[in-house]
TrEMBL record:
The lineage of its organism: Bacteria, Bacillati, Bacillota, Bacilli, Bacillales. The keyword Transport applies. It is a multi-pass membrane protein. It holds the Pfam family MFS_1. Keywords: Cell membrane, Membrane, Transmembrane, Transmembrane helix, Transport. This is MFS family permease. GO terms for molecular function: transmembrane transporter activity.
Length: 431
């Protein structure tokens, strides 16, 4: 009877988690869209716009280790709810400033920093809590629904924000985001973060580890997990090398191919549609049996798509042929991102000890957040010097090489012993 009640509560968590993520993601993206346009209209300065981006990225990189330490040592429910309340108060503060003295860049930057910090604590803690909120058999469903809500927000929020911007005032945007945040607080307060948790109970009177000791313990734990280390290294190389994609596809479409803004927007949206459809598919199907092998194929697919962006630079295409080609490519990219991310996330959720999840996910976030801007800066420099097609093709080949080395047959066998050496070799040959 107790088990049935726990499963019912887990089902409630699945949908509450999804709705909460959808509302908060939608609110955050509408806010980000409105603030970005406001800054550009107010100043006309790319530097002011970039400063706001730095105010979002830098705090996440710095605060992720603190968030991981907190998630592993304190109540995860308290952290999530406190972070959401802090977000609500930050937006409320900006709303008061806008109504009393008018919005200023400093007020926007401070709010962006606060929201970045709170979202880091909330994101790392939620990632660490999935196995405590839902039963093991539905972890893939939870991760897919989570990604589905993010994808849905990515598709819908620019359209909603674009329609509203110019017709409603900035305080209205802030009220919308505050309302979404308050609903998030209410939904999260009804969740039981310890339903399936396997965390060790702290012994009364036992001193807590310092943050430095805790992070050292997290790194020592990772060293004993070669499969997780391989996944982390693959993730880091993807984040860095995809700087070629992030900079390249916009640069080629806008500068080289002179793509109209509405067509460029449609191509961007095709990626989010692909992500949404694959998330829906994975949420309904049974769990992926060999996630590392599936992810390996997915990364190779992503690399080929990245190289494929260069094709219209080498082979002449008509404008609409090129538009259709890039839309198809971006749709495929959206599909492969989910094929890679979701099975690996499920695998890591199951493999990482509950007491180390916060630190492991925070280490991954810190390194990824540091490497992504670095990749963008380096590739931005390279695109000014070398032909775009060669940068994309070389980066694509490097990514294929990296995944073939880091997810070589011996690593796949360790991750999935039941496959057997011969089965793995047969699978890889068939690729």
């Amino acid at each position: 009877m107790e088990e049935v009640l726990k499963l019912k509560k887990a089902t409630y968590h699945l949908w509450t988690f999804t709705i909460s993520k959808l509302i908060s993601s939608f609110g955050a993206q509408v806010y980000a869209f409105a603030v970005s346009f406001y800054i550009l209209q107010l100043t006309g300065s790319a530097t002011s716009f970039a400063t706001n981006l730095i105010c979002s990225i830098l705090p996440r990189t710095i605060m992720a280790p603190f968030a991981g330490y907190a998630a592993d040592n304190y109540s995860r429910k308290t952290i999530v709810i406190t972070a959401q309340i802090a977000t609500t108060l930050a937006i409320g503060g900006l709303l008061i400033v806008s109504l009393t003295s008018g919005l200023s860049l400093i007020a926007i930057y401070v709010t962006t920093v606060v929201i970045s910090i709170t979202s880091t604590f909330s994101g790392v803690t939620f990632s660490s809590s999935v196995t405590g909120l839902v039963d093991e058999g539905r972890i893939q469903k939870a991760m897919s629904l989570n990604q589905m809500s993010i994808s849905f927000a990515a598709i819908g929020s620019p359209a909603v924000a674009g329609l509203l911007y110019g017709t409603v005032s900035m305080p209205t945007f802030l009220i919308m985001y505050m309302t979404a945040s308050i609903i998030g607080v209410f939904l999260e307060s009804t969740m039981n973060f310890k339903l399936f948790a396997k965390r060790k109970e702290a012994i009364a009177g036992e001193p807590k580890e310092s943050m430095l000791q805790s992070m050292k313990a997290g790194l020592a734990y990772l060293k004993l997990q070669p499969t997780i280390m391989a996944i982390i290294w693959i993730s880091l190389f993807i984040n860095f090398l995809f700087g070629a994609f992030m900079v390249g596809h916009s640069f080629i479409l806008i500068e080289k191919m002179k793509m109209a803004s509405e067509h460029f927007g449609f191509i961007e949206g095709a990626s989010a549609v692909g992500m949404l459809l694959m998330s829906i598919y994975l949420s309904m199907r049974k769990e992926v049996k060999f996630p590392l092998l599936v992810a390996k194929r997915g990364v190779i697919g992503m690399a080929l798509i990245m190289g494929g962006i260069a094709l219209p630079l080498i082979i002449h295409m008509s404008y609409y042929g090129m538009f259709a080609y890039y839309a198809t490519l971006m749709f495929g990219f959206g599909l492969t991102v989910i094929i890679v991310n979701t099975p690996l996330q499920v695998m890591m959720q199951k493999m990482i000890d509950d007491d180390y999840k916060g630190r492991v996910f925070s280490i991954l976030e810190t390194m990824a957040m540091a490497l992504t801007p670095l990749g963008v800066v380096i590739y931005g420099f390279l695109y000014d010097i070398f032909p775009a097609e060669w940068i994309l093709i070389v980066s694509s080949l490097l990514l294929i090489g990296v995944v073939l080395v880091l997810a070589r047959p011996s690593v796949v066998i360790k991750a999935h012993p039941e496959l057997g050496a011969e089965a793995v070799k047969a699978e890889i040959v068939s690729e």
